[in-house]
Amino acid sequence: xxxxxxxxxxxxxxxxxxxxxxxxxxxxxxxxxxxxxxxxxxxxxxxxxxxxxxxxxxxxxxxxxxxxxxxxxxxxxxxxxxxxxxxxxxxxxxxxxxxxxxxxxxxxxxxxxxxxxxxxxxxxxxxxxxxxxxxxxxxxxxx
Length: 143
Prior knowledge:
Layout: E1 2-8, H1 11-14, H2 21-36, E2 40-45, E3 53-56, E4 64-67, E5 77-84, H3 88-96, E6 106-110, H4 124-137
Antiparallel strand pairs: 1-5, 1-6, 2-5, 3-4
């Protein structure tokens, strides 16, 4: 099962405050644990929303592009990991070990798998292509 661990933005991340060298080292050690366990598929920090854009699709064709920053900090993301583990409980265990100190929020959500869709909603050919793409491109990061 794949899960995305979403790091919620806060005032510091939106202000572009970078982590200390100690915090970077701690995060590096945590990432090494994920890699050694063979569960980390991806992970990155995100720049503040002031450096991003938001696309809004209205159904009338071309989406509207809005430059950041965006007002609702609690709705923004500051980073993420994608992990592949055997259960929701294992995902929560890994999320509980993230070296955050105080006030950070992490959201853990399962990623849709092909098996989550009704058989009549996705063709066998599409499922095979999706599986082949994942096997070729989504592998645990190796240390």
